[in-house]
């Protein structure tokens, strides 16, 4: 989104959630805590998986990549927001804003594709268990990660269209969001809006439908298991992933609807906070609390760390 007249666009203003100065210390403490919990929690997941040889499986390979993506996703927006709150500044440079837009799209896209890859992994594990090791080999897992990254990069680059901006450069968010940046443009944004909604619908819709199909097949296979214990064990392997899927797509869908339907900026800003901050923070808790293998690996990691 290179401007046709960059001399008039030295910086943008991030208005955030509220202009109440009395709430700024509370907001700084809240978001700093959430960011630190996100980074520490996801880092523990990565370390636990890398240190536990019994977790070197496709499912945990995707989970470690998801945790890394969550760290990067949060780091794209949170540090700048915290710095602005602390310094009482609302500005972000033109280059910084467009860079932030690009990385938000890349890591959001990565998370989207990783959740779909994890759903496919669970589908193969439950519906085709005898062929699991053959299908989900290291080459396919690596290829899925590479394709996720490449498609996310291409999606971000496709939005690098030329825009010119007028005097209004206030973004009613705590970070630079693509839809809000496009709204500030005084040039024709028809192509930008079509690309935004078309690519979001295609990339998000295809992966979401793939996840739904996977879980329809999974549920169908589980219901054919004769024993209640076998059904519970099969369901338990999907519970964490399904919870993360519902959290991610639920908040993403709210942002999508909020930005398309309402013009009330504060509601859209709150929805964006839920989308960019909450899922990365909650994912480690969901996987560590609902997954017995992860709980065991985390306990061993913390035990070795405390006595080393």
Concise account of the structure shown:
The protein has eleven helices and three strands. The chain is an all-alpha fold.
Q: Overview of this structure, please?
A:
The protein is mainly alpha-helical and 308 residues long. The protein has helices at residues 24-51, 58-87, 94-127, 132-135, 138-158, 178-184, 190-222, 228-261, 265-276, 278-290, 292-306; strands at residues 11-14, 91-93, 170-171. It is built from 11 helices and 3 strands. It has a 3-stranded mixed β-sheet with strand order 2-1-3. The longest helix has 34 residues, at 94-127. The termini are far apart.
Query: How many β-strands, per DSSP?
Result: 3
Average predicted confidence as pLDDT: 83
Structural class: mainly alpha
Strand content: under 5%
Oligomer: single chain
**Overall geometry:** globular
Major β-sheet profile: 3 strands, mixed
| Through-space gap between termini | 50 Å
Radius of gyration: 21 Å
Helix content: over 70%
Could you give the order of strands across the largest sheet? Answer: 2-1-3
Which regions contain 5 or more consecutive residues with pLDDT less than 50?
1-7
Element-by-element helix/strand order: EHHEHHHEHHHHHH
Number of helices: 11
Name its key features.
308 residues; mainly alpha; disordered N terminus
């Amino acid at each position: 989104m290179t401007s046709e007249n960059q001399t008039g666009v030295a910086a943008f203003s991030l208005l955030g959630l509220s202009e109440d100065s009395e709430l700024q210390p509370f907001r700084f403490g809240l978001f700093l805590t959430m960011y630190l919990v996100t980074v520490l929690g996801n880092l523990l997941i990565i370390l636990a998986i890398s240190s536990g040889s019994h977790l070197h499986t496709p499912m945990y390979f995707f989970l470690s990549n998801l945790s890394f993506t969550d760290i990067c996703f949060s780091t794209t927006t949170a540090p700048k927001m915290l710095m602005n709150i602390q310094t009482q500044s609302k500005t972000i440079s033109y280059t910084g804003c467009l860079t932030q837009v690009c990385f938000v799209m890349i890591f959001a896209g990565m998370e989207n594709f990783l959740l779909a890859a994890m759903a496919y992994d669970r589908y193969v594990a439950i519906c085709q268990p005898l062929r699991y090791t053959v299908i989900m080999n290291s080459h396919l897992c690596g290829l899925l990660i590479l394709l996720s990254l490449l498609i996310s990069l291409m999606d971000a680059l496709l939005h690098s269209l030329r825009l010119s901006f007028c005097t209004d450069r206030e973004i009613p968010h705590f970070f630079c969001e693509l839809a809000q940046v496009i709204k500030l443009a005084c040039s024709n944004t028809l192509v930008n809006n079509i690309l935004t909604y078309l690519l979001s619908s295609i990339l998000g819709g295809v992966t979401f439908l793939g996840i739904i199909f996977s879980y329809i097949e999974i549920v169908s296979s589980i219901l054919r298991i004769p024993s209640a214990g076998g059904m519970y064990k099969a369901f338990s392997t999907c519970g964490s992933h399904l919870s993360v899927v519902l959290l991610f797509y639920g908040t993403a869908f709210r942002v999508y609807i909020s930005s398309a339907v309402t013009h009330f900026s504060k509601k859209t800003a709150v929805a964006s906070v839920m989308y960019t901050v909450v899922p990365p923070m909650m994912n480690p808790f969901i996987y560590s609390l609902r997954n017995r293998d992860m709980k065991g690996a985390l306990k061993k990691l913390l035990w070795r760390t405390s006595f080393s």
